[in-house]
Design goal:
- The chain is mainly alpha-helical.
- It has 32 helices and 9 strands.
- Strands 3, 4, 5, 6, 7, 8 and 9 form a 7-stranded mixed beta sheet that branches.
- The two termini are 37 Å apart.
């Protein structure tokens, strides 16, 4: 098929209209009442937010109750809730122990966070409760403040210098609840400030590098339970903490409890084989509902511990006293705000970013919408509620949410049923778990971390995909390992900002030409496009602001050379002649020859065009430095009788031009073709 036959089978786009500047187009077709409408809409929005109906809309549970389909969803939601509730029990106990609190505080966290979240959250599937990374940061904050306030953490040691008693549990609870309170306050504040998109600043390489390193910290923190080696370490090390942890562990290796070690290894192997060889291999037969193997390990471990009296006969550390019933409400710790503010900010962002990513995943799958700012608010209220009931910071869990979805859960009733299961354990079953070996909980945590630790396999992928993403992953991982989770995340975030700034410096200015006799303009180095005589169209691929303005000017001067561009280069020769005697002899220096050649080429090139049209299609914004750069460009080129025109400017750019009092109305055209046509008339 030849070209004419191919064209004959295509639809023809025919455009016949006058050439417009942006000012003319706005004058003829703009909505003249737009400004008044905007002002009125803003006032209406503010008043609308304060209306009783809108305030009631904050309680998303009302819409859930009014829209619930009992016939369609009740049975599947109840069964799914029971399944998720069973999953809550081992993870809550394990991550409660990870924070160095009594494991029962993990149950408190899962219950109160879940019940509170359903009143305000917009996700129908998210399972809120304990999470490994947030529990680790809580543990890190507790150990740091214990070292900073030893008189509060070790009260008996200050009364008796020979005391070897560990840190006060009361002080630990105060730190955990205070952290939950301030984390909730920050999340609610971010919600009111509409910071719901803040999670987008945490790139995937950053999050995956951070969570991999955090998983290694969690793994290391469980070695004391795996090996059965316990010692009081009152010296807090901020840097190289893991190095000193393993050094101290090996220094005390002769104290290893072989019963605890063997018990832990058996549990880890059993958990791993069950997950990989049964839950994964027979996923279809199990209807995507994994066997609750962690709960089985806890039950069997408790029974074996009671029958064999592992604590008495083999010295294995057990969970100990587990209070029965509701925790006594108490005020969180307010006085340590300045000591934990950085941890609270990091926790609030990490918990939100993790929860939102899980919520968004299942909202897309089931085709409903979530409100990112309401999610921030819901998590904030959950954490504040937690802080009054001896609980720590909560977060959404991917593994439990996957189980909720795969087991048929459709609505928030799943969370209500799951919380009821946790409540049952809190009220009646808790005391039966007092002989549960801590080695069991350590094994559950270590086995659960394997997928996070295997994220190191991301490195070859990011190396092939993008070297800067690879650098982000490595820097975040290494800084989190060497320093600590709070410093590691901050350094990773700064790395992302730095590398994104570096990316933005890669501004390029491409020369565009017209494709055939179409109104389309494309880069001449990639398309069969030709330039209009006396007109040069250029296209910057990024915004023009203080980072890129100088680069844009240099690139433009290179793409569109003129006599004025050469003043700086020619001054180099004069300076060289005066100070270094360049060109004093019969032969010219290499620099002078190079400049002469460039000058001749430039002067020849400058005759080819009388107008430069700058296509602003990809320029999203400009700032003061960018506007000053454009003023200099207009002045320099017009000194050589070369006119500068602009095309395809968005509204933000035009508004900024007006605020900078740049009189460009006659220079800004609707499209590139409008600008070209205005010069060819």
């Amino acid at each position: 098929m030849d070209e004419n036959e191919n064209w004959a089978n295509r639809r023809i786009v025919s455009i016949n209209r006058p050439a417009y500047t942006q000012k003319e187009f706005d004058s003829n077709f703009g909505n003249k009442s737009e400004g008044d409408a905007k002002n009125g809409s803003k006032i209406r929005q503010i008043l609308g937010k304060l209306s009783p109906i809108n305030l009631l809309g904050t309680f998303t549970i009302l819409s859930f109750i009014s829209e619930y389909n009992f016939k369609k969803n009740l049975i599947t939601d109840v069964l799914s809730g029971l399944t998720v509730g069973v999953m809550h029990i081992p993870s809550s106990l394990a991550y409660g122990a990870l924070t160095s609190l009594n494991p029962v505080h993990g149950l408190y966290t899962s219950f109160f966070a879940g019940i509170t979240y359903i009143f305000f959250g917009t996700s129908k599937h998210l399972s809120v409760g304990t999470f490994a990374v947030t529990s680790l940061i809580v543990y890190s904050t507790i150990t740091r403040l214990e070292a900073e306030y030893p008189e509060l953490a070790f009260p008996n040691s200050f009364q008796n210098s020979t005391s070897t008693e560990g840190p006060s549990m009361e002080f630990k609870i105060k730190i955990a609840t205070g952290l939950a309170f301030w984390c909730g306050v920050i999340q609610i504040l971010f919600s009111l400030l509409k910071f719901g998109s803040i999670s987008k600043f945490l790139s995937q390489p950053l999050l995956r590098g951070f969570t991999t390193a955090a998983a290694f910290h969690v793994f290391s923190s469980q070695m004391k339970h795996i090996f059965g080696i316990y010692y009081v370490n009152r010296k807090r090390r901020k840097f190289f903490k893991l190095v000193f942890l393993y050094l101290r562990l090996f220094q005390n290796i002769e104290q290893i409890n072989w019963a605890a070690f063997i018990f832990s290894i058996v549990c880890i192997v059993f958990l791993y084989l069950t997950r990989t060889q049964i839950n994964e291999r027979f996923k279809t037969q199990l209807k995507n509902i994994p066997l609750p193997i962690e709960l089985f390990v806890i039950i069997v471990g408790t029974v074996v511990s009671n029958l064999a009296e592992l604590n008495k006969n083999y010295g294995m550390t057990v969970v100990g006293s587990i209070p029965k019933g509701f925790p006594e409400p108490q005020l969180p710790e307010f006085n340590l705000l300045m000591d934990m503010i950085l941890d609270a900010i990091i926790l609030s962002v990490i918990a939100y970013a993790t929860s939102l990513s899980v919520s968004d995943l299942f909202a897309r799958k089931h085709k409903y919408k979530i409100d990112s700012n309401k999610e921030f608010f819901a998590l904030g209220v959950s954490n504040i509620a937690n802080s009054f009931f001896q609980s720590f910071v909560s977060c959404g869990s991917l593994s439990r949410t996957v189980v909720a979805d795969s087991s048929g859960g459709k609505t928030q009733l799943v969370t209500i049923i799951a919380s009821s299961v946790v409540l049952t354990v809190m009220l009646w079953i808790g005391p039966f778990l007092e002989q549960l070996p801590k080695a069991c909980l350590g094994a559950i945590i270590v086995a659960a971390l394997l997928n996070l630790l295997l994220q190191v396999r991301d490195l070859p992928y990011y190396w092939r995909l993008d070297k800067l993403d690879f650098i982000t992953w490595i820097v975040t991982f290494v800084s989190t390992i060497i320093l600590d989770v709070d410093f590691g995340l901050c350094i990773g975030f700064l790395t992302v900002l730095f590398l994104n700034t570096y990316r933005s410096q890669n501004l390029q200015v491409k020369i565009q030409g017209r494709v055939k006799d179409f109104e389309l303009y494309r880069p001449v180095d990639k398309y069969l496009a030709s330039e209009q005589e006396s007109i040069r169209v250029v296209y910057p691929n990024q915004s023009i602001y203080f980072v890129t303005s100088d680069i844009f000017k240099q690139q433009l001067n290179f793409s569109c050379p003129s006599k004025s561009n050469m003043i700086t280069d020619l001054s180099l020769i004069e300076n060289c002649k005066i100070n270094y005697g360049c060109g004093a002899g019969p032969e010219k220096s290499d620099l002078e020859i190079k400049i002469d050649e460039t000058e001749n080429d430039t002067l020849d090139s400058s005759k080819k065009f009388e107008t430069i049209i700058i296509d602003f299609s990809d320029v999203q914004f400009v700032d003061e430095a960018g506007c000053k750069c454009l003023k200099e460009i207009i002045r320099d080129y017009e000194s050589d009788n070369i006119q500068i025109l602009f095309a395809c400017c968005n509204e933000n750019v035009i508004d900024y031009f007006k605020r900078m009092k740049m009189e460009l109305d006659d220079r800004i055209f609707l499209t590139v073709q409008d600008a070209v046509s205005s010069k060819l008339c």
